[in-house]
Design goal:
Elements: H1 3-34, E1 36-40, E2 43-44, H2 50-58, H3 70-81, E3 88-91, H4 92-101, H5 111-118, E4 132-137, H6 141-152, E5 160-167, H7 174-183, E6 195-198, E7 203-206, E8 209-215, E9 232-236, H8 244-247, E10 256-261, E11 270-271, E12 287-289, H9 293-308, E13 311-321, E14 347-349, H10 353-360, E15 368-375, E16 381-389, H11 395-408, E17 415-418, E18 435-438, E19 443-445, E20 448-455, H12 459-472, E21 479-480
Parallel strand pairs: 1-3, 3-21, 4-5, 4-9, 5-8, 9-10, 10-12, 11-12, 13-15, 17-18
Antiparallel strand pairs: 1-2, 6-7, 7-8, 13-16, 14-15, 16-20, 18-20, 19-20
Length: 481
């Protein structure tokens, strides 16, 4: 490579860095002061580094015919920052690409006029709802990730306020240990910010958020109003109570208004997979379940396929990371096989996820079977869906359809899509999608299809849980365009 080529390559990189640096304060200001989350083809740019912003733009080329340069999208972001918009997730990439390459502008429409038309639902529509108090009952893997997600959204326009965590214990050094577990994570890396312990108030301070630490042994023995918490949504991460009687104990505590369970519920409690049946949540629902991580991963893809091709029947096999329910070394466990060492064995076990799909997608009732294999990885799982469709297709057509669903359908927040031939499980740690379609692994033979879906069973699921919290709070944030 010549010196001239080297210089051009470096200049191109420096230009991208410069525009990414110019974008950062605009993205932050839009989020903090207007409640607008800026994304590029589904990838959030909020709190992103310059490299994150550059990489998000590079991904556009995987989905479209041309690349999207940062210098091309910057004028759209700059115009957005000067507009009276609020409370929305705005895809900067789709807006810029549509205007520049897809002829979505009308006549000689300027960028400002184009944005006014495309973002009409969020213009002059400031959300005046009072902030919603949220309490995390239990502070394990999901609880701590939910805390991270809510803390990263901190700002004057944030309507979900993490007010407290409820845990058992209260032994000496407990606050320091809770802070340390939130600060450091062996799978998801360090907390992005500052965490300090407030002994005087028995609380944690994280990026400007004061989180009260409350000790309790039962859901019905807490008086949240003593801490200035009222009408709170209690997110139960313990998995101890799964029916209406057990979860109803939360509602006996002063200051508690609604309960969301981060596990499949029993009885008549609604099991919600956001993106599929979140419309079933009503203002009158006091107890709701966010189903399981696997149900959230497979149901959106199954819905997309069933809507287009119809599903006669099928089998779902999950290859699942081991969980805290298993033993580190061989020891007694009440469940079959789970007593054997999780880091050393593949463990065949059962899953109710395939049957649970019907609770969110009734048209698939009785059509799916399922099983699970726990494997020695700490996070990120895969669902292999072997389906018999109602009509014949081919790999290319089915993949194209799922790609469009991931980018432009009502399921775009749930389904991601990859065409990489090199992707492995650790590459997907931190994915905010319920599931990621691995298009290179897709197999189609007439009316039979095998679809592989990756999912971060911790972080991706936590994002789905938070979407349910927003709906329970009545916070309907539009995704535009």
């Amino acid at each position: 490579m010549s010196d001239v080529q080297n210089d051009r390559t470096l200049q191109s990189w420096e230009e991208r860095q410069e525009f990414a640096e110019l974008m950062q304060p605009l993205i932050g200001k839009l989020y903090r002061t207007k409640g607008v989350e800026t994304i590029v083809y589904g990838r959030s740019l909020v709190a992103g580094s310059t490299i994150d912003i550059i990489k998000a733009h590079r991904l556009v080329r995987q989905h479209e015919d041309s690349k999207l340069r940062l210098r091309e999208s910057f004028p759209f972001l700059e115009a957005m920052a000067n507009m009276n918009i609020s409370s929305a997730r705005v895809d900067l990439g789709k807006l810029a690409y549509g205007y520049l390459y897809k002829n979505e502008k009308q006549g000689d429409e300027s960028i400002e006029q184009y944005l006014m038309r495309k973002l009409g639902a969020a213009i002059g529509n400031a959300h005046e709802q009072e902030p919603q108090d949220v309490v995390l009952y239990g502070f394990g893997r999901i609880g701590r990730l939910l805390a991270r997600l809510m803390i990263e959204r901190n700002g004057r326009n944030n309507k979900l306020r993490l007010r407290a965590i409820v845990v058992r214990g209260g032994r000496e050094g407990d606050l320091e240990k809770r802070a340390s577990l939130l600060r450091r994570d062996s799978v998801h890396g360090p907390f992005n910010g500052s965490i300090t312990v407030d002994h005087e108030n028995n609380a944690l301070k994280a990026n400007g958020t004061l989180i009260q630490v409350i000790y309790a042994n039962s859901p019905d023995e807490v008086d949240y109003t003593k801490y200035g918490i009222d009408n709170a949504i209690i997110v139960d991460n313990t998995g101890i109570w799964k029916d209406e009687d057990g979860l109803g104990l939360h509602l006996k505590s002063k200051g508690a208004k609604k309960v969301l369970l981060t596990a499949p519920a029993k009885g008549a409690i609604k099991n919600i997979v956001h993106g599929v049946n979140h419309g079933d949540i009503t203002a009158e629902d006091l107890i709701v379940s966010a189903a399981s991580c696997t149900t959230n991963a497979i149901t959106p893809v199954l819905k997309a396929l069933n809507d287009r091709y119809g599903i006669r029947n099928g089998h779902v096999e999950t290859v699942h990371a081991y969980t805290n329910d298993q033993n580190l070394i061989d020891n007694y466990h009440k469940a079959d096989r789970r007593g054997r060492s999780a880091p050393l064995n593949m463990v065949l076990t059962e899953t109710g996820a395939a049957k649970a799909v019907a609770k969110a997608l009734p048209e698939l009732a009785g059509k799916l079977t399922g099983n699970a294999i726990r494997v020695p990885t700490p996070n990120v799982s895969m669902a292999i869906m072997n389906l018999n469709l109602n009509e014949e297709t081919d790999k290319s057509a089915l993949n194209d359809y799922l790609r469009e669903a991931a980018l432009f359908s009502d399921l775009q927040d749930q389904i991601d899509y990859t065409a990489s031939t090199e992707i492995v499980s650790s590459d997907l740690v931190g994915s905010r999608y319920a599931g990621i379609v691995d298009s290179q692994a897709t197999i189609v033979d007439g009316d039979r299809a095998v679809v592989y879906v990756w999912y971060d069973n911790e972080f991706g699921y936590s994002c789905q849980v938070l979407r349910c919290v927003q709906d329970m709070a009545g916070l309907n944030v539009p995704s535009l365009p």
